[in-house]
Amino acid sequence: MTKQRDVGLALKALVQAALPLAAVKGFDGDTSKPALIGPNGTVIGHPGEPGDPEVDLSPPTYNYRHRFYLEVAADNGDPGAPLDAMLVAIGAAIRADRTLGGLCMYLEAVAPDRNDRTTDQVATTNWAVLPIDAHYSTEDPLA
Asked: Which residue, of 19, 25, 111, 120, is most buried by count of CB atoms within 10 Å of its CB?
């Protein structure tokens, strides 16, 4: 596997550990939004783009700031409270393992973009897009 994929799958595992009852998908597959959000919430991971690396020479080392995106959703309840709890849990997991077990030099969350929607004037789904920056290096951008 490539370093990019390894970091993405490690981030998925971190989110699954932080939110063990939530449905966590994406990162390496289906990133479509579900029609219904389960009672414990949903997280959809998007692989994002690693961007252009900064290159160190002798030996060549490619340094990336790879931005992943998490779509975090909570259904009903107090407006924003379940979503806030999910975001806090993800933040705590990131602070506890900023290197993803040694795969990254540093992992950091960026302030989320929130969007609350009412469906059929009855149920409210609270969504947030949470950017996560993974800083990592590799000696081969294809590996």
From this structure: 19
